[in-house]
UniProtKB/TrEMBL annotation:
Domain of life: Eukaryota
TM segment ranges: 54-76, 91-109, 121-138, 185-203, 234-252, 258-277, 297-314
Protein name from the UniProt record: Uncharacterized protein
UniProt keyword annotations, A-Z: Membrane, Transmembrane, Transmembrane helix
Keyword check for Transmembrane: yes
Length: 329
């Protein structure tokens, strides 16, 4: 008697184990089970993949906080109260790392890197070193401002002393140019970029939807989570735009920032992230949203930053920042 293939679709299969015991499994469930590796991230394949919505929200939040708390004081001068040397703009900059750092760390935790204890120790330690550099830059910037304001006020009130003693001009230059605009800015920026490199590393293999994963009613996060809806695309797009503006702002505000930003964009953005994604996914896969979507996010941001930097170089007619070029917003 012949049977059609459909006759077997719901028949149980008996599986014989090494101890001789047999168990029955539904054939349909076996067909829907994926036996290929689950590229969820840096942790073991048994852990749940990072929540795409949480990752996208955190990427947007970190970029938004950094941009608002750093670019805001440049574009808008908060009122200064009489007799107060630590002005409103300084307070805004002081708050940025306090708010942003927990968001960066939440991104690291969501990657599931700490599911692997050894890898978690290594990556976590490296991340904390870079976070310390980031925080030191912010701290030096705040300290420079704190000392600069009363010293500048004394210089304004005592022009004759300033004219006869070069110490005043030299010390003010040391505070404002060397530490506030030089050392602190680049420590701050270097720490931020290095932390983003760690995040790019731990999310390097994260895809959504996961490759080779069958969509079933028992999918851990549900079948709807496999789709990129409009909310996901908006979070992804706005976050990448804001991060691109942050990188681009380096060219506008930092000494020789255009050169530094171009080196970062071309050497790391294109040379490391770009080539990695293309090598793993091919040219077509690189532009398929969801394939290593965090790295795609960084690639898009660096592309936006490149446009901003080139536009600034044209506008400033060279590689000077806004202060060197005498351009005010």
């Amino acid at each position: 008697m012949s049977h059609s293939p459909s006759d077997h679709s719901m028949l149980p299969l008996s599986t014989t184990h090494l101890d001789g015991a047999t168990t029955s499994e539904d054939y349909t469930s076996l067909m829907l089970t994926d036996d290929k590796p689950n590229h969820a991230g840096p942790s073991s394949s048994n852990s749940q993949p990072p929540s795409r919505r949480i990752v996208l929200a955190l990427l947007l939040a970190t970029s938004l906080v950094t941009l608002v708390f750093t670019a805001g004081p440049v574009l808008f001068e908060l009122p200064q109260m009489d007799g107060v040397w630590y002005v409103g703009n300084d307070i805004v900059r002081l708050l940025e790392p306090i708010i942003a750092m927990p968001l960066y760390f939440a991104l690291l935790v969501e990657s599931k890197v700490f599911d692997d204890r050894r890898q978690g120790y290594i990556v976590g330690t490296v991340f904390m070193i870079f976070a310390g550099i980031y925080q030191q830059g912010a701290g030096f910037h705040s300290a420079s401002n704190m000392f600069k304001h009363p010293f500048k006020e004394y210089m304004d009130l005592n022009p004759s002393a300033v004219a006869t003693d070069p110490f005043f001009a030299d010390f003010y230059y040391w505070l404002r140019t060397v530490w506030e605009h030089g050392v602190s800015h680049y420590l701050y920026a270097a720490g931020g970029v290095l932390m983003s490199m760690v995040l790019a590393y731990v999310y390097r293999d994260v895809c959504s939807p996961q490759p080779h994963t069958a969509i079933t009613m028992s999918t851990a996060r549900g079948a709807d989570d496999m789709k990129w809806n409009m909310g996901d695309r908006v979070l992804w797009g706005i976050g990448a735009l804001l991060y691109g503006l942050i990188i681009g702002s380096v060219a506008i505000n930092f000494p020789k920032g255009s050169i530094v930003a171009l080196v970062l964009i071309l050497a790391y953005g294109a040379g490391v992230v770009g080539t990695f994604v293309i090598r793993k996914e091919g040219v077509r896969g690189t532009f398929a949203l969801g394939r290593r979507y965090v790295l795609q996010w960084y690639l898009t941001a660096y592309t936006i930053a490149l446009i901003v930097v080139i536009g600034w170089i044209i506008h400033a007619k060279g590689f000077d920042n806004r202060e060197e070029a005498g351009i005010k917003f």
